């Protein structure tokens, strides 16, 4: 039943899909003994880094000066603009969120400590551009400038004037203090605050119930003892036998992981998206699950592997008081592929649904803590656990709400300049369909490789929408192409699943923003 035909008097739980009901049941069962409110800390309480912040600080030591953890959000603002009011609105958000005033100097023994500076002016630079191409260049250059985690600030803003009533606003935040959801929160706050200032209205934003430091303390208290042991046991079982993903690269993998990246934009039209959504509904699955199953098939055919995982982000905000905060909450779940045998796509979708529901019920263990607790062997050549990520984003559907028409804000693409993984697939729903981007490591792939990959994904999505009951081997004829690995010069059918490589990096045990193309 669609939202348009749902009975308003019907209990909300009765209107949930089967997948969401099952997810709710599993999450309630897994959190029966958990606290449900994040308490505000006492004044003067030392604040630790969250698990995610610790890992990102470590990654900065591993690869200093990288821009791979920069999160840019860009909007083109139409209408007369008061730069002073915009600056004041940005300053207010910096004062409102302690994360935007955070930095991480190291102690004498080389460990990071969290410092929260007092409120002060935001780092906002103003510039002029003679046209869109120059504005794009300024945005790309500013987005690629690394942050200094020790000195800060970890937020930068750039306001580019194209005309009196035409500007581009760029906000760049380091991932240790923000995530995709947070970037939209920050942008919405700035636009609402700006609208209030130009209208001479009171500040429209209520006081925050808690700050990110309260969450960091609460998170560490929650993930301890029996609960931590249960989460570790679950992920130990789930990830037994997982292999590193080795796609058919154009270039040999460097001995140490690199972070130089680029993006390839593409789209999925609304007609095909609607067919994929209908396929999901027939199997009590979400569009994300449908896309994940297809992406796993694609990766299997380009790697010849079955035992790998794909990372998939979740919001990581289990309590409502965390939703309006700017901070690093997102967690990335490792979702193992279930490709054994020769299932139909419909059967694979069923397996993928179960994998996702199980993962969502155990999503509170941060990925950084998972890597630590499971003692994942460190391979400096690649990211741990998974090397490919799928993100189906929906937080931008409420973007810029509350701007009160003081300005009209439209998306403005930014060119990818770094990547944290071998391959990242970002998809976001818009009225005309899915807007997608493959962000890829340029030390592994050529742009032409990714163009072929995107084309293959499109044909695969059409094939599974048309014939979901066809075994995966039967789908090969609909989408078969050959790929040549420049490492070996061999040609392998992309739809041939080779036996998995013998080297395992995980011990076998018994019973996770719009982009302009270059």
Gist of the model:
Residues 1-15, 395-403 and 481-518 have low confidence and may be disordered.
Question: Which key terms come to mind for this protein?
Answer:
518 residues, 13 helices, globular
Structural write-up:
The chain contains 13 helices and 15 strands. The protein is globular, with a radius of gyration of 23 Å. The relative contact order is 0.16.
Note the topology.
Elements: H1 18-30, H2 51-62, E1 70-78, H3 83-96, E2 102-103, E3 115-116, E4 124-128, H4 132-143, E5 155-163, E6 166-174, H5 180-198, H6 212-222, H7 225-238, E7 261-269, H8 270-282, H9 287-303, E8 309-314, E9 331-336, H10 345-360, H11 367-373, E10 388-393, E11 408-411, E12 423-430, E13 433-441, H12 447-466, H13 472-479, E14 482-484, E15 491-493
Helix pairs in contact: 1-10, 3-5, 8-9, 8-12, 9-10, 9-12
* Unreliable residue runs: 1-15, 395-403, 481-518
List how many beta strands DSSP finds.
Answer: 15
Sheet having the most strands? 5 strands, mixed
- Output the radius of gyration: 23 Å
Please give the alpha-carbon distance between the first and last residues.
42 Å
Q: What structural category do the secondary elements indicate? A: alpha+beta
The whole-number mean of residue pLDDT values reads: 84
How many helical stretches? 13
Order of strands across the biggest sheet?
4-5-6-1-11
Strand content: 15-25%
Order of helices and strands: HHEHEEEHEEHHHEHHEEHHEEEEHHEE
Q: Portion of residues in helices?
A: 25-40%
**Backbone shape:** globular
């Amino acid at each position: 039943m669609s939202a348009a035909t749902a009975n308003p008097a019907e209990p909300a739980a009765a209107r949930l899909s089967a997948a969401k009901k099952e997810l709710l049941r599993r999450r309630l069962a897994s959190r029966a003994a958990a606290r449900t409110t994040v308490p505000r800390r006492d004044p003067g309480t030392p604040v630790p880094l969250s698990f995610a912040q610790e890992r990102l600080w470590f990654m900065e030591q591993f690869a200093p000066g990288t821009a791979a953890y920069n999160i840019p959000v860009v909007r083109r603002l139409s209408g007369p603009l008061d730069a002073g009011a915009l600056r004041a609105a940005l300053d207010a958000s910096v004062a409102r969120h302690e994360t935007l005033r955070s930095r991480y100097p190291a102690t004498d023994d080389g460990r990071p400590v969290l410092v929260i500076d007092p409120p002060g002016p935001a780092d906002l630079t103003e510039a002029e551009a003679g046209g869109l191409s120059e504005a794009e260049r300024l945005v790309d250059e500013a987005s690629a400038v690394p942050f200094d985690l020790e000195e800060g600030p970890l937020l930068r803003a750039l306001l580019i004037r194209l005309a009196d009533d035409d500007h581009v606003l760029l906000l760049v935040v380091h991932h240790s203090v923000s995530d995709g959801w947070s970037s939209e929160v920050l942008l919405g706050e700035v636009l609402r605050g700006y609208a209030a200032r130009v209208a001479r209205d009171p500040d429209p934003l209520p006081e925050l119930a808690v700050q990110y430091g309260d969450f960091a303390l609460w998170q560490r208290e929650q993930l301890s003892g029996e609960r931590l042991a249960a989460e570790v046991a679950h992920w130990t079982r789930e990830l037994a036998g997982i292999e590193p993903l080795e796609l058919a690269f154009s270039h040999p993998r460097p001995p140490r992981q690199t972070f130089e990246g680029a993006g390839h934009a593409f789209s999925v039209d609304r007609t095909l998206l609607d067919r994929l959504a209908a396929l999901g509904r027939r199997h009590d699955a979400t569009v994300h699950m449908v896309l994940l199953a297809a992406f796993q098939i694609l990766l299997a055919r380009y790697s010849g592997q079955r035992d790998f995982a794909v990372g998939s982000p979740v919001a990581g905000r289990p309590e409502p008081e965390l939703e309006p905060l700017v901070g690093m909450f997102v967690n990335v779940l490792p979702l193992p592929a279930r490709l054994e045998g020769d299932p139909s796509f419909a059967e694979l979708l069923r397996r993928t649904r179960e994998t996702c529901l199980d993962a969502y019920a155990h999503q509170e263990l941060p990925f950084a803590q998972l890597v630590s607790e499971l003692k994942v062997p460190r391979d400096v050549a690649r990211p741990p656990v998974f090397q490919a990520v799928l993100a189906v984003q929906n937080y931008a559907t409420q973007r810029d709400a509350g701007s009160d028409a003081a300005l009209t804000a439209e998306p403005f693409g930014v060119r990818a300049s770094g990547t944290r993984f071998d391959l990242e697939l970002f998809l976001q729903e818009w009225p005309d369909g899915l807007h997608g981007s493959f962000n890829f490591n340029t030390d592994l792939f050529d742009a032409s490789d990714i163009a072929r990959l995107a084309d293959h994904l499109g044909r695969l999505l059409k094939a599974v929408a048309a014939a979901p009951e066809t075994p995966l081997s039967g789908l090969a004829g609909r989408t078969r192409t050959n790929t040549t690995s420049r490492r070996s010069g061999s040609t392998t059918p992309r739809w041939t699943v080779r036996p998995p490589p013998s080297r395992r990096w995980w011990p076998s045990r018994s019973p996770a923003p719009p982009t302009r193309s270059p």
